[in-house]
């Protein structure tokens, strides 16, 4: 297998998608932490012109991560990597369903989540918008209904797939930061909201699903709550 280097950040839910995939396939790779508030000058020109994480350097000579080789192929974007990584290790995980219809359903599940949960997550956590709680409740309903329709253990399958790996970083951060009131909304608005949603029997299927996801070893190995809460406190203090 050609060398792999992942440029990532503990605080970034998009980056955690790629880290979960690498953990699921048991890949041997170099991990390089990018400080998102102070990115290295070489990162954008040599790794990802968009200056975002995650990005994967594939192939080329075995060099230090902070001296990326022009001979390696640099591949950004979390959803691209979430599918590429298991394709590089086709016998190592169930992330990519072998049934093309199930794979299509996984992609649709990710698309739905991206269009509902993530915008509501951003609106509440980073903007404190009025009405964001209703949007987040609606997003939870969407996840519940999608899983109910499939009737599987995970999102679209009885196996853990890219659909599950794509969503768990965002659900985990929402639960953590809302409960700690580490959001743009005035405390205790979000901690009260998350407590109400968890106590509401209507949303039990959603939290049961999340319990399954956060019990994966790949999630546990790539989850840094202390780094996430510390970054949130620093961001709020700066504002």
Automatic annotation (TrEMBL):
GO cellular component terms listed in the entry, alphabetical order: cytoplasm
PROSITE patterns: GST_CTER (PS50405), GST_NTER (PS50404)
InterPro entries assigned: Glutathione-S-Trfase_C-like, Glutathione-S-Trfase_C_sf, Glutathione_S-Trfase, Glutathione_S-Trfase_N, GST_Omega/HSP26, Thioredoxin-like_sf
CDD domains, alphabetized: GST_C_family, GST_N_family
GST N-terminal domain sequence ranges: 2-93
A Pfam family annotated for this UniProt entry: GST_N_3
Domain GST C-terminal: 99-224
Gene3D superfamilies in UniProt: 1.20.1050.10, Glutaredoxin
The name this protein goes by in its record: Glutathione S-transferase
Lineage: Eukaryota, Fungi, Dikarya, Basidiomycota, Agaricomycotina
């Amino acid at each position: 297998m050609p060398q792999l280097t992942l440029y990532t950040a503990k605080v970034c839910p998009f980056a955690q998608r790629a880290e979960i995939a690498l953990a699921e396939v048991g890949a041997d790779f170099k991990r390089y932490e990018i400080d998102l508030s102070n990115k290295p000058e070489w990162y954008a020109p040599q790794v990802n012109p968009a200056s975002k994480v995650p990005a994967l350097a594939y192939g080329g000579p075995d060099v230090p991560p902070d001296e990326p080789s022009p001979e390696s192929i640099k591949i950004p974007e979390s959803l691209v990597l979430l599918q590429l990584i298991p394709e590089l290790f086709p016998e190592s995980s169930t992330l990519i369903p072998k049934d093309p219809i199930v794979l299509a359903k996984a992609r649709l599940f990710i698309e739905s989540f991206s269009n509902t949960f993530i915008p509501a997550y951003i609106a509440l956590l980073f903007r404190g918008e009025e009405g964001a709680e209703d949007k987040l409740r609606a997003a939870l309903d969407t996840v519940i209904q999608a899983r109910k329709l499939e009737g599987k253990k995970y999102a679209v399958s009885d196996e853990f797939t890219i659909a599950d790996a794509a969503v768990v970083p965002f659900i985990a951060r929402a639960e953590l930061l809302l409960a700690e009131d580490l959001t743009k909304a005035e405390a205790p608005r979000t901690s009260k909201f998350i407590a109400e949603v968890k106590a509401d029997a209507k949303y039990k299927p959603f939290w049961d699903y999340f319990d399954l996801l956060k019990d994966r070893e790949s999630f546990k190995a790539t989850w840094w709550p202390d780094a996430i809460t510390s970054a949130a406190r620093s961001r709020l203090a700066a504002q």
